[in-house]
Amino acid sequence: MKAMILAAGRGTRVRPLTDTVPKPMIPVINKPLMEFLIDLLRQHGFDEIIVSTSYLANEIENYFREGSRFGVQIAYSFEGYQTESGLVPHGWGSAGGLRRIQDFGRFFDDTFVVLCGDAIIDLDLTAALDFHRRNKAIATIVLKDVPREEVHNYGVVETQPDGRIVRFQEKPSPEEAVSTTINTGIYFFEPEVIDLIPQGVSYDFGKQLFPLLVEKGLPFFGVALPFTWLDIGRTPDYWRATQTILREQLDFFTMPGRQIAPGVWAGLNLAVDLSTVDLRGPVYIGSSTAIQPGATIIGPSVIGRNCVIEAGARIEASIIGEYTRISGSAHISEKIISGGFCVDRLGNTVDLARDYAFVVNDARERRRRLTEDQRMLVEFLKAEGAGSGSA
Amino acid sequence: MRIDVSNVGAATVVRPADERIDIEVAGDLRAELLRLIESGRSNLVVDLEGVSFIDSSGLGALVSGIKAIRMSGVGGDIRLANSRASVIELLEVIRLNRVFSTYPSVELAAQSFGDGR
Q1: CA B14 distance to own-chain centroid
Q2: Does the distance separating the beta carbons of B96 and A348 come in below 8 Å?
Q3: Tens of pLDDT along B12-52?
Q4: Among B22, B30, B95, which would you mutate to test the A interface (most chain A Cβ atoms within 10 Å of its Cβ)?
Q5: Distance from CA of A34 to the nearest CA of B (A)
Q6: Backbone angles phi, psi at A89, to 5 degrees
Q7: Which chain B residues touch A381 with a CB distance below 8 Å?
Q8: Would you tell me which residues 340-359 of chain A have a C-beta closer than 8 angstroms to some C-beta of chain B?
Q9: Which residues pair with A390 in a beta bridge?
Q10: Closest C-alpha among A360, A270, A362 to residue A313
Q11: How far, in Å, CA of B77 to CA of A306, rounded?
């Protein structure tokens, strides 16, 4: 069966994580978000997958190639153009992208599924497909209930008892929302839906196509099934999703690497003497990472590959990106460290690379000479006992 | 950099006017803190309401101040008020939150000194 993954977005709400990787490639415990979707599609027999790409398209296309390594066939629909200075993204909108694929090679010839490349899900796609077919729907969207204060992030639907959608509101305010049932970005379509999408213009599922289906009175259904939905809509969601996976050991997730201590998994060739560090799981440590004696790492935490965690450093419930050096002066608690940025669980971001490279920096960087103030700070913190690893 | 100095209760409130305390202006802050401490005003509140970024020289100025207070042996402290989330985050990451307590307002920071010690 055939599927489409929407992977063309800029991921603005997930900056600074998306400064260097597109959202579908954000590593969730060292596995790109989109790989979870490919695995799920394969398990349910969707083995011909078209991926719309645009922003940082090469990152996606060079990882998944044509899919053979993942047991599926993958093709890409690139939205943008090439210039002397590289690829320029030029998106067509979610539905506009689907129309382009169909106009290109008439790919979709039977019921197909569309997934947004920004959530990890474990939905029973087969059960949802059964619902779609049983109702002879032209389109079915998978629904979930959320707290009312969150509805403004989503498309809100009103359904009849049989699941037929009678109203669709895109990102309403909590006061305006007709319900708290929202669109999760998982769709089942019949190919004839594509004929309703205008050619050659940017067109959106939530803003345009779905309200049109309601207006035309077509068989448009919503189905709510119990499933795990880890949506990475905003930067802090990434922290939360990782915490959930590590803490709850969800069925669909297998820890990579091998277990080196209770609750601690690791990749190859770590430089660590387990008797000299304080590691409390669940923790995953990527390959070729050094953890110096006297460092503390408390889970749920993920340390990327090729990191250096220096003596005295303390890391708690955090995600440390690959090639990061965490100095002994640092206390990283409930944070994401990525590309020199530090993001807290509310999304507040501090650029450490700019002036605090002596605290957190790229592990491959040459040692910089400290300024007088930086040297004083380091010595002061040492004298204060900050390097002792105590909280 | 303009630095406003005022008294609130038992505390002296220092309010830097710039949004960024970096190498350009940190020297002014350091000089002002040291001047106040030398003149015996060592219950200091630094009001960071308008400050969005402090670089290492800015933190160096605060640390110079706390070191001067400790050396003077007369007691006192430097406490922060109205720190923005990004400044609090920075202080946490380099563990200076254990040295500089942060209060949600100048009044609360000043009150924390009691009637003066």
Answers
A1: 7
A2: no
A3: 999 998 888 988 899 999 999 999 999 989 899 999 999 99
A4: B95
A5: 31
A6: -70, 140
A7: 94-96
A8: 342, 344, 346, 348-350, 352, 354-356, 358-359
A9: none
A10: A360
A11: 41
CA pair distance A77, A98, nearest whole angstrom:
9
A85: helix, strand or coil: coil
Among B67, B85, B95, beta carbon nearest to A346: B85
* Cβ contact A381–B60 (<8 Å): no
Position A349, amino acid: T
Nearest CA in chain B to A389: B95
Cis peptide upstream of residue A282 (ω within 30 degrees of 0): yes
Asked if A355 and B55 come within 8 Å (Cβ–Cβ), the reply is yes
Residue B99 with chain A: CB contacts under 8 Å: 384
Enter the DSSP assignment of A322: S
Average confidence (pLDDT) over A132-151? 94
3-state SS assignment for residue B69: helix
E strands within A60-164? Answer: 73-78, 80-83, 86-89, 112-116, 119-121, 139-145, 155-159
Q: pTM of the predicted model, to two decimals?
A: 0.88
**Tokens describing residue B7:** 């008294």
- Around Cβ B88, how many Cβ atoms within 10 Å? 17
**Chain A CA closest to residue B67:** A380
Q: Check if the beta carbon of residue A119 is closer than 8 Å to that of residue A231.
A: yes
| Chain B: residue whose CA lies nearest to A348 | B86
- Give the orientation angle of helix B56-72 with respect to helix A372-383, to 10 degrees: 50
Contact A243, A259 (CB under 8 A): no
Retrieve residue B74's tokens: 């007369």
Rounded-to-integer distance, Cα A24 and Cα A197, Å: 25
Mean pLDDT, residues A323-343 taken together = 94
What sign does the CA torsion over A170, A173, A179, A180 have? positive
- B93 and A352 within 8 Å at the Cβ level: the answer is yes
Question: pLDDT by residue (tens digit) across A5-45?
Answer: 999 988 888 888 888 899 999 999 989 999 999 999 999 99
A267-299 pLDDT per residue, tens: 999 999 999 999 998 999 999 999 999 999 999
Give the CA angle between residues A31, A34, A37 to the nearest 5°.
105
Contact state of A374 with B63 under an 8 Å Cβ cutoff: no
Cβ separation of B93 and A376 shorter than 8 Å?
A: no
